[in-house]
Amino acid sequence: MDTLALLLQGFEVALQPMNLFWALVGSTLGTAIGILPGIGPALTIALLLPVTVSVGPVSAFIMFAGVLYGAMYGGSTTSILINTPGEAGSMMTALEGNKMARAGRGAAALATAAIGSFVAGTIATLLLTFAAPSIAELAFYFRPADYFALTVMAFTSVAVVMGTSRVRGFIALFIGLALGVIGIDGMTGQARMTFGVAELLDGVELTVVLVSLFAIGEIIYVASRFSRQNDEMIPIKGQVWMSKEDWRRSYKPWLRGTVIGFPMGAIPGGGSEIPTMLSYTLEKKLCKKPDEFGKGAIEGVAGPEAANNAAAAGVLVPLLTLGLPTSATAAILLAAFQNFGLQPGPFLFTTNPELVWGLIASLYVGNVMLLVLNLPLVGMWVKLLLIPKPQLYAGILVFAMMGIWGVSGSVFDLAFMVGVGLLGYVMRVYDFPIAPLLIGLILGPMAEMQLRTALAAGQGNPAVLVETPMSIAFLVISFLFLFVPFLLRRLKAAA
């Protein structure tokens, strides 16, 4: 009953006219950036960080949640109509959705994607509502050694799972850790890795790094591979609504996709790509008409889209309760919390319940807004694809530089922004994942502090790191992330 009472208080916050306005802004922006290929929620939230410093944290995070959910909705549109995923989680939707569009069933594909996103988003938000307080209560019993082990698990899982190479993942992670230690050591007062530059004494500005990696790096990468050939857009054909047969074939994949997506989003390295792939594979096995897969099976759209949206809600569970980001977007949301002087974790539920429960309640509201925005207005949204890419990315670049200048007013930050942007470009060219760098940068200082606190409490004895069952469990899971894939490959080669 306490949870329901807190949720009702959250609705009082979320339904305030100003917060409803920000929810609408976030949902609209999210849908737009989901539709535009190459622009994801991580980039959008990073660009909005400098702009939202004057907005209250409650309104800002309600808008960010709208962006996160909206991108999941909008990404399916380009997957279906031009066979180009607007964001990573919509890759599997393109396989069957585009085939449906070419067969004249584009409207049905868009409808099952939008309704599936709504169903999965609502169910996943319900799970978040009741799971988050329990996990937050458990986190009160965590010791510094437990938190350190938790961050180690986050590091290893993200470095191993994200990207095509473990070596590249760990290199990206160590770059992030190196950037995270720049500045004055909080315990000793010594300057570290500042190289005599006074502007680095306060450490690396998170907003500058985030905007640089996603905006500058991505823009240079896109520009270097720009093609003047226009993507072929398939017109929306077929009846606007789904048939009874479409409903019958869609509702079970929606539910199964939700069951897969929510827990996968909550674990480190789960992301949105893995649950959508698992959902697609499962629907292909369970489908009564498997011969339709590869030719436009509606189950191949309904399941992955539900899994995609459920994973977005799952990401918020470890972020809000433990301060643990499990994806690049979650890492940027964590940076946004820190921008407002807040630290996600169990104490956030007690010190700032208005923010937490207002954010959770806004997810219900945002889901309804997104359904209204996406079903009847899809014809309007696809017009965004007519924006020339050079003008679009040039506008993003100008907006990013204005945002950084508006926050810091520092020439050094602009120069640093260019340098980190070039680093982001090199990482994209050589297929280095961005997420491990972000998580290393954001969680690195926290991991260091918890490690030093634990060792201080244990008088320097490293055995203190494995004294609790929780820390042992997290370290064992980290070990499994590192070595199980290697062992499986060896066994497969031996067989």
Brief sketch in words of this structure:
The chain contains 20 helices and 2 strands. By secondary structure, it is mainly alpha-helical.
Shape: globular
Q: pLDDT under 50 segments (min length 5)?
A: none
| Total beta strands | 2
**Distance between termini?**
55 Å
How much beta, percentage-wise?
Answer: under 5%
Classification by helices and strands: mainly alpha
Biggest β-sheet: count, sense, barrel? Answer: 2 strands, antiparallel
Q: How many discrete domains?
A: 1
**Range of helix content:** over 70%
**Tally of individual helices:** 20
State the order of secondary-structure elements, H for helix, E for strand.
Answer: HHHHHHHHEEHHHHHHHHHHHH
**Roughly what is the average pLDDT, rounded to an integer?**
80
Strand order of the largest sheet: 1-2
Q: What is the CA-based Rg, rounded?
A: 22 Å
